[in-house]
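Sequence design from tokenized structure. All designs in this work follow the same two-part layout: the structure record, then the generated sequence. An example of the structure record is given first.
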């Protein structure tokens, strides 16, 4: 480990009677110093339960969570580490009788049910379904999940930016160029939001937006709640202030004076979550309320060459003037391939050389793309695994139900629950077998399925024994595979002989007792284990949110869950948080996800540099994160020029953020033709081309 710098130590040593604003670019050691100060607080006898650590995302508070677990610290009451949303939820639970009636709930005498993103989508789907039948959203082609998440986004923006739900459409319309079809969509999106809100109030359901709104409007102003919170929390640590939304800043602003001490950590150049309501300018309003400001400016991360590249790239992206730097070639490598598989070959070979020839630990390498497509993930994982390099991928926006592991687990769950009356399709059973049993290839899976699968075995669909099939078929399938298959089958039969358990418990047992064992497909697969954990979590939360409502219908939670997944209504989004558990493995992730991990690495590979995905916003016809923000002047029209300016700003922020988290070198991979077969010429590629040209000119015509 390292020693704190004098500036960091000075921060740690500030008396615990100060409100401090700590600001600097990423990588300057702010979090390290803040965590050291938290440790100092505990070592100096400040009780843990009087300390509040606030962060915009739980993952951003990870260094604090790890620190407080250190057994070397004095034992005592636990520190509270939460997001404001989490704090809101705890307090709504605690003070429910104070607010249930005034918030307009139909059954204030009954307890509240808190919804996750997934379970909110589930209920929203019930509300929207009849409207879709009335031809709502007919004019656009949008996958239902994206439709639901935009309706929820609008509600969340209202709660986080601080406007009424019934003004969503008016705001969006006033910034629109006025095409009737677009205006109509905004009206419909608002209608959905209002009906969902009404449904929640009638059924004691609280999605994120309602939790935030109730906390801000009803609980926070309530003297009893304020007294409780002020008495409980005396010291505040607020990490990544710039990634939080204005309403959170408003609350902290009015609370700040009540703390004995506070440390607000502001990452200059951040605000990556702008599309989720992050507002760095609003965060700055907290600065004057602090007693002192401290700046850290020197990076512990970037080499001079990376810094030269960062500054040059920023200027090039912003279309400003810049000059060549002799340092840049040290920090930049480049590969041009016609198609993605060739890029994957090149990247895998570079990574292999780094790990195997230069002893670079795999976790010091990340591969980043604007989106991580299946093709790219597969191509890279396969090549790296073949070279014996552990790899791990993170795709927070990928749907859980799209994972093969999920399909396998749920298909086996259907087979183990004939009472649900569901019959899986042939393809599902075959691919579940293939996923579950190691060494089972497609032709053998087909054979095994055709011979052993019976629609009416076990009073439902099931398998007959491998022992019973003809020896020559056994030989073709192989006895090793047969033995594994028998083990799985035996486990399912055994389960069927007893009383059914909840679906999440079933999956956790199936994973632990069979699929994670040697000889089965989930053995030693980080990714499958992660999907299983998320699936279990998703089912558990669904059970908590929807279980009671289902009791009267006679349907089990498991059956409802499986059917909802099949219809695309749930398991459509991971919760947006993740653990950075990539120790020992190369990470493949969308660039944005990596940024939110706040973890510097030595080498970054940027894939698909020609893609416009680095530059453009997602297509969101029902919402507009920039218009639904406090930065937008009501009534102003959003034009193509605004879009272009915003895209450039976002790209500059992104490339800065990535480079500030890179110690040694980035390697660019460009495909002439993307996976969809079109030519690739996005603005990030142009920005690099300008740098290459300038470098070549400076070197008298040579190439970088
Ligand atoms: N005194 C120090 N000596 C050496 N390395 C340090 C020191 N302080 C911090 N670092 C390292 O610098 C890196 C960045 O530190 P840290 O995360 O605290 O910075 P930050 O300013 O909070 O950046 P971010 O906003 O990205 O979290 C980490 O890898 C950390 O281990």
């Amino acid at each position: 480990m390292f020693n704190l710098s004098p500036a960091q130590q000075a921060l740690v040593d500030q008396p615990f009677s100060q409100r401090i604003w700590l600001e600097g670019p990423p990588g300057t050691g702010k979090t390290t110093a803040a965590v050291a100060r938290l440790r100092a607080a505990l070592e100096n006898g400040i009780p843990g339960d009087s300390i509040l650590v606030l962060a915009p995302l739980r993952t951003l508070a990870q260094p604090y969570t790890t620190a407080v677990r250190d057994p070397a610290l004095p034992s005592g009451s636990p520190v509270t580490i939460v997001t404001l949303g989490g704090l809101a939820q705890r307090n709504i639970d605690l003070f429910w009788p104070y607010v249930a009636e005034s918030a307009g709930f139909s059954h204030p005498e009954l307890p509240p049910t808190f919804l996750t993103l997934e379970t909110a989508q589930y209920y929203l789907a019930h509300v929207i379904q009849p409207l879709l039948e009335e031809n709502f959203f007919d004019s656009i082609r949008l996958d239902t999940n994206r439709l639901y998440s935009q309706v929820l986004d609008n509600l969340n923006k209202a709660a986080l930016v601080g406007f009424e739900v019934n003004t969503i459409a008016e705001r969006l319309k006033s910034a629109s160029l006025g095409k009737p079809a677009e205006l109509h969509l905004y009206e419909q999106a608002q209608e959905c939001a209002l009906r969902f809100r009404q449904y929640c109030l009638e059924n004691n359901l609280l999605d994120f937006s309602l939790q935030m709104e109730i906390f801000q409007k009803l609980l926070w102003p309530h003297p009893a709640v304020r007294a409780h919170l002020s008495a409980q929390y005396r010291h505040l640590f607020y990490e990544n202030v710039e990634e939080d939304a204005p309403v959170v800043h408003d609350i902290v602003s009015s609370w700040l004076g009540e703390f004995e001490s506070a440390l607000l950590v502001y990452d200059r150049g951040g605000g990556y979550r702008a599309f989720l309501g992050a507002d760095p300018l609003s965060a700055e309003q907290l600065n004057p309320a602090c007693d002192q400001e401290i700046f850290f400016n020197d990076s512990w991360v970037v080499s001079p060459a990376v810094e030269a590249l960062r500054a040059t790239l920023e200027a090039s992206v912003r279309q400003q003037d810049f000059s060549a730097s002799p340092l840049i070639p040290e920090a930049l490598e480049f590969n041009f391939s016609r198609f993605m598989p060739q890029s994957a070959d090149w990247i895998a070979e570079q990574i292999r050389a780094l790990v195997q020839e230069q002893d670079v630990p795999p976790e010091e390498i990340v591969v980043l793309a604007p989106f991580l497509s299946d093709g790219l993930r597969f191509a890279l994982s396969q090549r790296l695994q073949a070279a014996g390099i552990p790899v791990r991928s993170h795709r927070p926006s990928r749907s859980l139900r799209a994972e093969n592991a999920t399909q396998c687990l749920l298909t086996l769950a259907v087979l183990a629950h004939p009472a649900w009356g569901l019959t899986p399709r042939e393809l599902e059973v075959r691919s579940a077998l293939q996923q579950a049993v190691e060494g089972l290839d497609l032709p053998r899976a087909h054979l095994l399925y055709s011979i052993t699968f019976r629609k009416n075995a076990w009073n439902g669909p099931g398998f007959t024994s491998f022992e019973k099939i003809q020896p020559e078929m056994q030989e073709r399938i192989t006895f090793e595979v047969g033995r594994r298959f028998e083990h799985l089958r035996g486990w399912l039969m055994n389960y069927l002989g007893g009383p059914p358990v909840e679906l999440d418990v079933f999956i956790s047992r199936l994973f632990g007792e069979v699929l994670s064992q040697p000889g089965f497909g989930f053995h030693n697969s980080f990714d499958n284990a992660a999907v299983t954990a998320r699936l279990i979590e998703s089912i558990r939360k669904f059970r908590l949110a929807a279980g009671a409502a289902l009791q009267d219908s006679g349907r089990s939670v498991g059956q409802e869950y499986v059917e909802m997944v099949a219809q695309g209504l749930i398991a459509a989004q991971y919760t947006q948080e993740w653990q950075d558990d990539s120790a020992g493995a190369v990470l493949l992730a969308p660039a944005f996800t990596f940024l939110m991990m706040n973890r510097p690495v030595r080498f970054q590979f940027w894939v698909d540099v020609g893609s416009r995905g680095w530059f453009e916003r997602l297509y969101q016809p029902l919402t507009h994160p920039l218009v639904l923000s406090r930065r937008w002047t009501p009534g102003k029209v959003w034009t193509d020029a605004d879009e272009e300016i915003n895209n450039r700003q976002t790209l500059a922020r992104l490339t800065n953020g990535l480079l500030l988290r890179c110690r040694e070198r980035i390697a660019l991979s460009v495909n002439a033709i993307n996976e969809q077969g079109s030519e690739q010429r996005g603005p990030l590629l142009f920005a690099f081309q300008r740098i290459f040209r300038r470098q070549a000119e400076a070197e008298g015509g040579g190439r970088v």
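The pocket of adenosine-5'-triphosphate is lined by residues 2, 4-5, 8, 24, 26-32, 267, 300-301, 598, 600 (CB under 6 Å). We note this feature because it recurs in several other targets discussed in the main text.
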